[in-house]
Structures are given as C-alpha cells and as structure tokens.
Amino acid sequence: SSDLTEGLYTEVRQDLAGLGGDARFFRTTGDMRYYYPLFDDVFGIARIQGGNMFAWGGGELRIIDNFNPGPSLVRGFAPGGIGPRDITDANNLVGAGLGGTNFFGGSLEAQFPVLGLPKEIGLKAAIFGDAGTVFGYKGKTDFSALVGGGTPPSPCVASTTTQVNCISVRDSHMIRSSVGMSLLWA
C-alpha cells in the first residue's frame, strides 16, 4: 500500500495455466517490502522480488508466457527491456526482448514530503536505486513451420520471405540497474 510507513509487506503468488487453452505452465512470484522510518516524515523502503516458472504436462512455454517485468523490476526500463534477447539480426545489436523463466531484483528507496506543500495534497518525492535481472529463456527457437521454411526439425535457414525461421538467443544474466528521483501522488 502507498500509505505504509513502517512494517513488513510480503506477497507470494502462484499461477497454474493449462486447465484450458494452449498454455501449460506453473509460475511462482514473490515480493517483500520492508518500510522503516528514517526521521520525521522521511521513511525508507527496502524491496526484494523474484519469480520462477516452468512448463508442465508436456507443454512448451510460449514467448508471451515469459516474465517481462521491465519497470516493475527496474524503473526506467521498458517491458521486455531486461533479459534474454533475440540477436538473429546482425544489424540490430540490441535485439528484441524475449523474456525469461526467472527474475530477481531489489531496490532501496527513501520517500519524503515535498517541501512547502501541505501533506493533504498527497504529493511525495522519492529517491531510489533499483537492480535486477531476467534470465532463462526456454521457449521455441525454431519457427520453420510458421514462416514457410519446412516443418521442424529443419535446419535454421533463411526462408523465402524476409524473415528467418529460427532465432538466436543471448541470455547473459546481466544485472541491470537504475537510480533516480520520482514524484508520487496518492
């Protein structure tokens, strides 16, 4: 809650997909925040979060099933901006985000009232530092059947269209970080 200033908040979630539809996975996420007063109207927040997922029942993880937390893990990053990348296109060194089956991160934050404004307005300022990573892409890499290159397990070669039928994955486990300031309005 945005009104907490002292105490411990924990949340564990488990999702099971596969009782209908095409997706079959089990996902667990956790989030723990410790709020503590620093002085006067200034308080700190220490946060850790993480998650793991895997396919079950012979299912295969789809790209859209993966974790892509972006700004909810490290502020300033877009969804899909952290973690495994499709680096098939040599002209695009950044690559497209694929997401992953694991993530973890932490942050430290100090929140305080904006000087000169009444508290009743609900405006606070914060300084923060975040760090986290996403890794473990376990999805499909051969899309031959979808782009006209044959049926799997054909070799990964360029198709007759402008696309290729396979992707190359860079999964570096790189920890990304950001620091900054924010305005919070409740």
Walk me through the structure.
The chain has 186 residues and is mainly beta. The protein has 1 helix and 9 strands. It has one helix spanning 144-147, and strands at residues 7-17, 25-39, 42-55, 85-86, 96-97, 102-113, 123-135, 169-170, 176-185. A 6-stranded antiparallel beta sheet has the order 1-2-3-6-7-9, with no helix packed on it. The chain has a 3-stranded antiparallel beta sheet with strand order 5-4-8, with no helix packed on it. Strand 1 and strand 2 form a beta hairpin.
Radius of gyration: 21 Å
Helix fraction by DSSP (H/I, runs of at least 4): under 10%
Q: Number of helix segments?
A: 1
Question: Structural class, from secondary structure content?
Answer: mainly beta
Distance between the termini: 10 Å
Low-pLDDT parts are none
The shape, in one word, is elongated
**Beta-sheet strand percentage?**
35-45%
Side by side, the strands of the main sheet go 1-2-3-6-7-9
Mean pLDDT: 86
Q: Quick one: biggest sheet?
A: 6 strands, antiparallel
Number of strands: 9
- SSE string, helices as H and strands as E: EEEEEEEHEE
